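yo

u said u wanted the structure for the complex thing, so here. seqs first:
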Amino acid sequence: MRKYKLIAPAKINLYLEIIGSRADGFHELAMILQSINLADEIEIHAASTENIRIYCQHPQVPNDKTNLVYRAAELMTKEFPDAFNNFGGVDITLIKNIPVAAGLAGGSTNAAAILVGIDLLWNLGLTESELQQLGGKLGSDVPFCIAGGTAIATGRGEKLSPLPTVDNLHIVLGKYRSLEVSTPWAYKSYREKFGHTYIADQDSLAARSHAFHSEAMVKAIYNHNIGEIAHQLHNDLEKVVLPAYPQVLRLRELFAAQPQVLNTMMSGSGPSVFAIVESASQAEIVKQKIRSAIPDPDLELFTTHTIEHGIEISS
Ligand code: ATP
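structre next:
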């Protein structure tokens, strides 16, 4: 029986700007996405049945057709019916290490891993760009999660331009286990409050997207200037999520008050908050200080760092 084990890393947003509305109902975004070494583990086996079966012990993750992993496998069966007939279904075991509904693209990176895994299992020989196109059908973050690293993401997040790797960026990440922020809620609330600021006409939207490729954060990444990268962190969604979730605001304020922290920001639609520090030892110090200040066991804290890849085949 053939099987593959894949590592599916989370992402953080170093930058997230909402620039306007799109005809498809999504938002036009300008983002910088960054893979981190906090990752889920996924095993995919060729099954002898025609079924897609998911085994996952995490209480917040469904084992049914609503799991993004299921949707990714189902997409492959529809796109490649001959291979599906030939090789049959798949059994998928998912070990979640990435906090769920955290703004860390947990489900998206799992879906990306399934696309990569089934490509291997069925000997499809798809290119990275073909995998990314399939990923775009599943969710805006899935195309990035395939190759990962550091990238500009525009459109609804699916138009990617790779950037030089930001390595040596040490991170402390906090997420309240029981706190979930719905991504659709965050964007809807933003539209209600700030929709009047959106760029409306298509030419101006395209110009903004284009200009973003040479802005301060992008330059800081090209120059590998960690201090400037930290300084340029930005996330528009903080404007709606922080007022609605005082616990998240407090965590962010606490991170900001630590002398080792260069800067702190919510990732994606939250509620995870990350802080940038200069070294792994400083990350440990900050983690301990936050733990002492908030002894609540519901708060999960991680030390992690940026990585230059997305989905990895471990065996
Ligand atoms: P993003 O950053 O892409 O918005 P997220 O990190 O905020 O995503 P996820 O962890 O992907 O959010 O979870 C969002 C919802 O999707 C949860 O309510 C969860 O139950 C559901 N879900 C479906 N499949 C998965 C999966 N494979 N892993 C995690 N959550 C999943």
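The first helix runs from residue 68 to 79. The chain has two domains: 3-164, 170-305.
cya
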